[in-house]
Amino acid sequence: MPRVVSIYFPYLPTDRIRRHGDGAGPVDQPLVVIARSGSKRWISAADTAARKLGLKVGMPASKAQAMVANLQMVDADPLADGAAIERLALWALRRYSPVVAVDGVDGIVMDTEGADHLQGGEELLISGIVNGLRGRGLTARAAVADSWGAAHALARLTSAETVVVPRGDVTKAVIGLPIHCLRLGPDTIRALRVLGVETVGELSALPQAPLTLRFGSEVGRRLDQLFGRLAEPIEPLRTPELVEVARNFQEPIGAAETIAKYVRRLVAQLTAKLEERGLGVRRSDLIIHRVDNTRQCLRAGLAKPVRDPAQLVKLLCDRIEKIDPGFGIERLVLVAVIAEPLEEKQVTSALVEEEVVDVTPLVDILGNRGQRLYRIAPLASDVPERSIQRIGPTAIETGAHWAAKWPRPSRLLPYPEEIETMAVLPDQPPVVLTWRGKRRRIVRADGPERIFGEWWLRPREMQAVRDYFVVEDEQGERLWVFRAGDGVDIGTGSHKWFLHGIFG
């Protein structure tokens, strides 16, 4: 069963104008977009501030000017809005799903079946999408459901930023929605309302034969698409920059060996096209079209641009067992969703020992199996828990180094854990400490190492102080402990003791 995500941009024209600064003023000043037809001028879009003042889409521009002083008015630009939607769809294609399309003038739609686990599940997937778009200055609402029609309707007719409809619960989620969610023409909607039909539930309860005689097959088709009874394929977005190869089959295929054979051929064709353009693939999608008009997708990501057919074939064929051919596969499409320039590198002689081993093939294999890979790298900070960052497994070295004046433990706890101690203030290490219920007598200690708070980042740390000690207990275990504060002034810290690390 497919899972479809619909993303709706309720304020796309005004968000685009503010984001690009096309004549927009301060954020708190109301902004409207004005459309024209001959001498008529009306509001085609309004931001949140304008709507709060009573301005509505369709209102004459002269009335809006009379109602709100200093109103920002920008001429509508449908071509720029359309280009913005296409850029957003391409962004989603590269980041979230192999099957993404533009959904009208105010949204995008994508099939995420089998792709949500890469983002931690559907809740995290769509909340991450909405938050990421908010960071780009765009207001968005997203819904995920079993059908395009249900996701489209819920994204536009609910006030929640994100909606996740559990599998099989589409009927319960949409039964109370108004009939204009069905994407029918305005004349049909008016005629249905004349008959007293206001909600999807009321419409679905009517006999379908009379409805078909009066309105044609469109009403029944849209109802079936809404409830998921009729498939509504998403035609993936394609641009001239995307390198794509495909193979159609007169007789459907289904055996794993046959699929692997044609995948190898498609990879050979794709790498040949990439070579003509001097590109290497960073992310490729294998889209499987089945005879029942459904799709399945496999996505392969690579740590760096690659044009080696053997490596691409291995990444794709390793997961062929995940392909469900159903009643047969009638078409295979292989797309290089992200391609980057690939520099040719001279291969050294086999007699010369290679000093650097390329681990990116291993990184690609583990990453495409769902493993989260990263490296630990230094970060410029005096506070220990802030001096570490996660970077990609093949990221370029930053050149930063950890301070080597004092020893650091091989294991740093995620958060300092409070301990009970006996110590003489202000400068003496603990004599006895209790950590996680175990009492330890300290036989050796070194310190203190004083670390100050980062007052330039957090004003509340202006007076903050930590005194760190390396201590060793009777069993020979070495621990890294600190006292919050200088041991004299309570304003520098609570004077409580914490364990922060363990030496190997």
Automatic annotation (TrEMBL):
Query: Its Enzyme Commission number?
Result: 2.7.7.7
Keywords, sorted A to Z: DNA damage
Instruction: Cite a single GO BP annotation.
Output: DNA repair
**Pfam families noted in UniProt:** IMS (PF00817), IMS_C (PF11799)
Q: What class of enzyme is it?
A: transferase
Q: Which domain of life is it from?
A: Bacteria
Q: Which cofactor does it need?
A: Mg(2+)
Q: Where is the UmuC domain?
A: 28-74
Reaction catalysed by this chain?
DNA(n) + a 2'-deoxyribonucleoside 5'-triphosphate = DNA(n+1) + diphosphate
Molecular function in Gene Ontology:
damaged DNA binding
What does the UniProt record say this protein does? Poorly processive, error-prone DNA polymerase involved in untargeted mutagenesis. Copies undamaged DNA at stalled replication forks, which arise in vivo from mismatched or misaligned primer ends. These misaligned primers can be extended by PolIV. Exhibits no 3'-5' exonuclease (proofreading) activity. May be involved in translesional synthesis, in conjunction with the beta clamp from PolIII.
Q: Which family does it belong to?
A: Belongs to the DNA polymerase type-Y family.
Query: Could you give the subunit structure recorded for this chain?
Result: Monomer.
Question: By what name is this protein known?
Answer: DNA-directed DNA polymerase
Q: Which organism is it from?
A: Rhizobium deserti
